[in-house]
Structure formats: structure tokens, C-alpha cells
Amino acid sequence: MTDETYMRRALELAEKGAGWVSPNPLVGAVIVKDEEIIGEGYHERYGQLHAERNALAHCTKSPKGATIYVTLEPCCHHGKQPPCTDALLAAGIRRVVIGSKDPNPLVHGKGIRILREHGVEVTEHVLEKECDAENEVFFHYMQTKLPFVILKYAMTLDGKIATYTGASRWVTGEAARAHVHRMRNRYRAIMVGVGTVLADDPMLTCRLKGTENGANPVRIICDSTLRTPLESQIVRSAKEIPTILATCNRQEAMHMPYIEAGCKILVTPEKDGHVDLSDLMQQLGQLGIDSVILEGGGTLNWSALQAGIVQKVQAYVASKLFGGTEAKTPVEGQGFHTPADAVELTRTKITALGSDWLIEGYPVENRRNMGCLQES
Question: With 81 labelled, which of 159, 284, 300, 334 sits at a CA distance of 20 to 30 A?
């Protein structure tokens, strides 16, 4: 087998840690000796063994003289776990094949240098593009200390997210909705405006098996004046599921009922009468929240695009037509002045999900037009 074959297996293993390792990266490792896989591992939970040490622990024979394939450069510093470079050297690994170089300044290139200085052969850039893509959240957060923001919505073929009556259950089918819950499991937080809470009283949880053990996203409600009902599902479940209310209201007396219910309050400056989006992203990044799914309405989506905070777009498109002049659309607000001003997407990908489609892409550039976060 080729280096690429073993690295693809390492990528498959790394995916198993999705939803559990944040803010750490997804990492998988495969140990090969005499063209036989003798050990496999991945980073399973934040704070637990890294992929390399897991693979070594599961070896069926001595790893001395073997090759290890790892999707990300082995760490060389003490964090929650000791350096993986130490473990590889102690095990007598002869060759290390790496997909991505670690952007963490504590590691970047240093792990590779240490291995080579000790006589270990190191091969870099194997399936680098795929390995980079698997850790797009980690790379963005490590380089900016800001959350990786995914703008997500479901719409019909005629571009409606609800009927003219406001009914939106369900725009897409079961396969697409199941995919949404896998994404909620994968990313660290989900954010909506208070308008969504008032209209739908959502739970914003991940309904997948196993998520009751802690893989629900952190729920973030943008509520400039603190209108979130204390009897809402969000507030009533805040002691079980991490919940943040972002507000411009500085009256501590109004904060207390929410705090007592288990919510965390983040106060931001006011920007055009609403929560300051840039300040909020800074605060979320400081809390270790590395990724946020936006699941609000068209006004929130417009504000996010206008502010230039969106790194990725996920549009679920249903094979339905709602019609209606007044029916809501995914992106509202004023809109851009000319077609040339539009946010363009690159690296687009289309995936069939039952009778629906998922269209994903990345904004060509993040626009920073001093936009504000609207509440819908």
C-alpha cells in the first residue's frame, strides 16, 4: 500500500473525535510495520490521550522500526498530555509521515525538527489538502483566536425558509435534518437571535445517540435588551446545557434571574441598537469557543455577511416550492447594492441528502462593513 492509503485511514480515524475534542484538533494515527497495520488510534476526548499515544497503546506487536502515519504534526510540548514526540522516540519509531503542519506556535515545525534531530525519517505533506480541510476549525481558531463561523439555513428551491404564514416545519426531509444534527454535534456552539427564541421556543440541542454525555453545542442567544422568557426551553434547561445570553443590558438586577437559572451573561457594547458582533466574537474566542453555527433568520444572516464574520456557508435546499411575496428568505436586510458587491462563494460542494441537497462554500473574502448583529 502507498503512504496515501494509510493516511486516508488516519483521516477516517480522526473523524471519530468530531464533537468531543474541541478546542483541540482532530487527529488520527496508523502504525505500519512490514506492510501490516499493527496499531491505530485517534484523539477521542479533550484532555485524553493524543492519537499517537493511543495508536502505540493499541499495537499488536513491537512498534520498534515501524512507520507511523499521523494527520497532524506530533506535539512537542506539555499540555493536558505529555509530548507525543517523546512517545514516538521511546517506542523506536523509524519513520513519521505527516499530513498537516501544526499551526500552534508551540509546535509549528518544532515537532518535526526534534524527530529529525533524533534520526527519525520524516515525510511531510501527504494528503495535506485533505488533512488541512479536516481541521479547518482548529486552523482558523489557532491563527485568529476567533470562532470559525458557519452560516447555515434550509430553504426551498424558490428561496423560502418558511411559508407566508411563518410555518417552517419542515422545509427539508429527514436525511437533511439528520445531517444538521451531525453538524451540531461537530461544532462547538449554535447561535440565534432572541427573535427565534420568541417565535419558536427551540431547544437547540443535538439529537444524536450519545450526545447526552456532553456533546450538545453551547447555545448562544443574541438578546440586546434581555427579552428571552425565563420560562423558555432554553432558560429552563440552562443548568444541563451550557447557555450564553449576549446582551447590551448592563443592569445586574436583570441578569440575576438568568444567572440563577444557569445562564452565562456576556455584555457587549451597543452597536446600532444591537449586540456588537465583533466584540461578541472576541469574547467567545476567549472562552475557548472555536466554532459557531448561525441558525437564525434572514436578518441575522445578512448582518453576519455584512460584518464579514462568516467562514463557511451551508445551504440545505429542499425540492419544494413555497411561493409567497411575504414569505421569509435566507438573507434579508438591505442587501448589497449591485451584483458586483455580492458575497461570492468558492470551493463549492454539492451533496445529495435524500431528496434534498446540501450546498457548501467559502466566502471569497470576509466583508467588514461595520455591520451589527440583528436579532432574528
Answer: 284
